[in-house]
Design goal:
By secondary structure, this protein is α/β, with parallel strands linked by helices. It contains 5 helices and 6 strands. It has a single domain, classed as Trna Endonuclease, Chain: A, domain 1 (3-Layer(aba) Sandwich). It has a 6-stranded mixed sheet with strand order 1-2-3-4-6-5. It is globular and about 50 Å long.
Length: about 150
């Protein structure tokens, strides 16, 4: 993905826990302590989502990357399939304001990718912790609960 992007990328990799439950356990975190620290909870949730995306991507012969350019535009994950299709993903715990911000970020990312080399994104997806159904917003961004992902 990085080699085919029309946007200059930051080269430092983004690191995630292989299983964020190990970190939660090592910290002896409880539901109450996690809810009291929404920033940490969000980081653990993002790690969980990326772990799940990597599992599904591996089964589909795809790769998962992160995208951040020098202007700070980012996507938490880019899932790049071997056949050339790709999706951009932002991860948010789920209130409407966070989802709107994530959608704006994804739309900005899609504008920065050289579509003559990468093609249009197959989807722009905000993955949330909310229960319920997946839906597509008026701007074309899909909002998908983590619980609805699967192979």
């Amino acid at each position: 993905m990085a080699a085919r992007s029309g946007s200059p990328l930051l080269t430092s990799p983004k690191h995630y826990f292989c299983d964020p439950s190990l970190a939660v356990s090592a910290l002896r975190a409880t539901p109450r302590s996690l809810l009291a620290d929404p920033e940490a909870l969000g980081l653990f949730f993002e790690s969980l989502v990326v772990k799940e995306l990597r599992i599904y991507a591996q089964a589909s012969d795809a790769e998962v990357y992160s995208f951040t350019d020098t202007a700070g535009t980012e996507a938490d994950a880019i899932v790049d399939a071997r056949d050339g299709r790709w999706i951009a993903v932002e991860v948010k715990l789920g209130n409407d304001e966070q989802i709107d911000k994530a959608a704006r970020s994804l739309l900005a990312v899609s504008k920065k990718i050289d579509e003559t080399r990468m093609g249009r994104p197959a989807a722009l997806v905000v993955i949330t912790a909310a229960d319920g159904y997946a839906y597509q917003r008026g701007d074309g961004v899909s909002v998908v609960p983590l619980s609805s992902l699967g192979p």
